[in-house]
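Intended use. Records like the one below are meant for learning the mapping from a protein sequence to its folded structure. Do not use them to infer anything beyond what is encoded.
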Amino acid sequence: QVQLVESGGGLVQAGGSLRLSCAVSGRSINGYAMAWFRQAPGKEREFVASINWSGGATYYTDPVKGRFTISRDNAKNTVSLQMNNLKPADAAIFYCAIARSRYLAPGRTRLDYDSWGQGTQVTVSS
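Structure written out for the chain above:
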């Protein structure tokens, strides 16, 4: 059974940085697209960033472009999200997810991913 565990969340001032990590067990991430989503209170879970199976292509939602960077380490079975210049609007619970099947192009919807972590809280003070 695949398990994803996020870490690295916390409280940061606006303009600060955090690096989120997602450790995957029970399945090698080799060949699978990975993604980060976030959910703010009272809002739907939304796409943040994704990375294809090889790490050669990345995708971002417009509000985070130029500030967030997704990366993966297949040898360590982890995916990361470097977040710079954080804004209060970025505050949310961040979730990592793994694609349903190998070699699929990274999707932007929840239905594209079949396993999720429990999330890590990111709080940004103004």
